[in-house]
Amino acid sequence: MSFFGNKRLIIVLVGLVLLISVVGYTSRERVNLTWPEMFFKDTFSVVQGLFYRPAQAVSGFFKEIDDAYKVYEENKALKAGLDQYAQMSAELHDLKAENERLRKLVGAQDSLKSYKLRFAEVVARNPDTWNNVITIDQGLKQGIKKDMAVITSKGMVGRVQSVANFSATVELLTSYERRDHISADIQAKQIVNGVEVYQNISGVVEEYDSQERMLVMRKIPWGQKIEAKQLVISSGLGGVVPRNLPIGYIVRVEPDDYGLTQTAYIQPSADFSQLNEVMVVERNFSISANGEVIPQQPTNGTSTPGANDKATPPASGGGQ
């Protein structure tokens, strides 16, 4: 038994010596590989190539899918950012425009601080009656009354046609259905003895010429010198529209059909294409049933011009 035990030990030792010898021999630097090494390397490279290429293809496929998904998510985020930027730009532009309009309204309020002004927003404008009427968000509950003048920061746009509790309909100066006339003055400049003198020349704004896109002022006395760009304002003589509200500027003057008076074409001061916020002007006097002028008392300490001036009742022609 000892012989067989020693024999196994000798075999193990011889095997270890051979293994160490082979390892030492193969680990040294050599010019050529042995044929077993070449066989195992070639076999391993073939097997590795068979598995490596499909694995790389599958890995590349899933990587491309992942990259495409990342690009999709990035584009989605960029589009959302662009949409948000466009929305914010539109809101900013709208706020700037509103701020500019409100600044102009405040400036108009300062220039007309003698009158009581009521701010209103245009809430409806029918395309079928675009040049005729607008609807504002102020009514009887806010003190709006029929025939009150309506203006913007640039000039007069119309008058209140009808009033509900919380809204009102405003008839525009550009309405072809308008029947009421507006008594107006042309602020003409003349030279008298070498001195510039301003003279008001009276007339009546009767209609709107849709082809010319200008207001038509008639009944201007013959012989009065009128020039282009002279300001036209309300005279307040009709008893409805207050005095000194800007209406427009003279473009040209022509004699009437009979050569007795003159007719002036006026470019409106207000921009009727952009009516967003308006102001309703409370007149400074009212007309009694028998045609007597009744001055109104100032409200909340606000002074009204012309309260002590003599005003003329409305003419039979319906002038305002």
Automatic annotation (TrEMBL):
Domain Rod shape-determining protein MreC beta-barrel core: 122-282
The keyword Methyltransferase is assigned to this record: no
GO CC annotations on file: plasma membrane
Extent of Polar residues compositional bias: 296-306
Pfam name, any one: MreC
Superkingdom per UniProt: Bacteria
InterPro entries: Cell/Rod_1, Cell/Rod_MreC_2, MreC, MreC_beta-barrel_core
Function, in words: Involved in formation and maintenance of cell shape.
This protein's name: Cell shape-determining protein MreC
